[in-house]
Amino acid sequence: MATAPAERWTETLADGRRAIIRPIERGDVRRNAAFLEALSPPSKHFLFLGGVTCPSDEELERLCAPDYAHDMAFVALAADADGRETERQVGICRYAGADPDHGAEISVAVADDWQHRGLGKVMLRRLIDYARAHGVTRLYSMDSAANDRMRKLGRDLGFTERRDPEDSSQVILTLNLT
User: Fold this and answer.
1) Quick one: which H or E segment has residue 30?
2) Domains in the chain, number
């Protein structure tokens, strides 16, 4: 069993709020479940592409136990006035299934009341840096064409966008890391 990398960052967002970003850990299952449950229906719809809106207990356990090579996730935790992490998870950014030929699929979710403050961009930048440092050659995301927030985030960070040839209601965002 791989152990979580020691990276940890305190980030100050556009509105002055602070968040601690760190690798997800096995002990984050309850906190991650509460975060996902608290997302608004539109945020859940975009995160899960209209599919599952509440992962099973087994899936939640798996999501909090990446191998830190083929799979990686960073959580964002609200920080108190002294910069210490609180129990509240306010974001998550992950890649999964990294392989040399296809790269890895990413996802980003931010608590509704923390959106539009730059947290998604900060988390995704950290994830991109980690992926590049660990030999991932490409990151991609399959998103609803109506998910303007994810599409803008991708463009802001250099992802290219194209329609999904198998589903015109979706777009594929891609970032080559080589």
Assistant:
1) helix 29-38
2) 1
- Give the C-alpha separation, 133 to 100, whole Å: 14
CA distance 24 to 174: 24
**Within the chain, what is the greatest distance between any pair of CA atoms?**
49
Q: Which candidate, 58, 86, 63, 84, places its Cα nearest to that of 74?
A: 63
Q: Please list, in sequence order, all residues whose beta carbon lies within 8 angstroms of the beta carbon of residue 132, skipping any fewer than 6 positions away.
A: 177
* pLDDT above 80 (res 3): no
Query: Could you say which DSSP state residue 134 is in?
Result: T
- Structural domain includes residue 1: no
* pLDDT of 57 over the 70 cut: yes
In a domain, 123, yes or no: yes
Report residue 77 as tokens: 């935790």
Q: Which 8-state DSSP code applies to residue 112? A: G
Tell me which of 84 and 4 has the higher pLDDT.
84
